[in-house]
Write a structure and sequence with these properties.
This protein has a single domain, classed as Helix Hairpins, CATH 1.10.287.4300. The two termini are 65 Å apart. A hairpin with a 2-residue loop joins strand 1 and strand 2. The protein is an alpha+beta fold. It has a 3-stranded antiparallel beta sheet, with no helix packed on it. A 3-stranded mixed beta sheet has the order 4-5-6, sandwiched between helices. InterPro entries: SpoIIIAH, SpoIIIAH_sf. This is Stage III sporulation protein AH. Pfam families: SpoIIIAH.
Amino acid sequence: MALLTTGLLTYRGHVWQSKADRSNAMQVAKTMTPEPAVPVTAPDFFTEYRLERDKIRSERFDLLREIIRSASGEETRQKAQEAVLKMTLEKQREAEIESLIKARGYADVLVFIRDNSVSAVVKTPSLTREDVMQVAEVISRVSGVKPEDITISAKP
């Protein structure tokens, strides 16, 4: 039976001094300090949706600009210009509504304006009836949409 203890090898009563072969060993003279870890966090729903919404809008704007540039008929060009103007106004209203709602103390909000309705998702665990009424009032005032055509939901 062999027993290795502190550099000595014992086998059936005989003791041998063991030496480590360090001919291929390297010594590190400089101590390395690890860089602080940067936590990687996944974007939340609000960030993800905003990025996707901007991407889709950008694609629609590009398509409409191409139609405006290459349209042979004046009516087609006019409709494309009106669509660009409508999208621009919707984007401005959405941004204004989002800012006003955030100013009321909510961490984040997404607003979606459609033809005759508006939807909003507020970053909060829950909304009271009073919260919903206040948010709906802001949306209605800026968008001109009737309160009954506004949908408001909470998302933590």
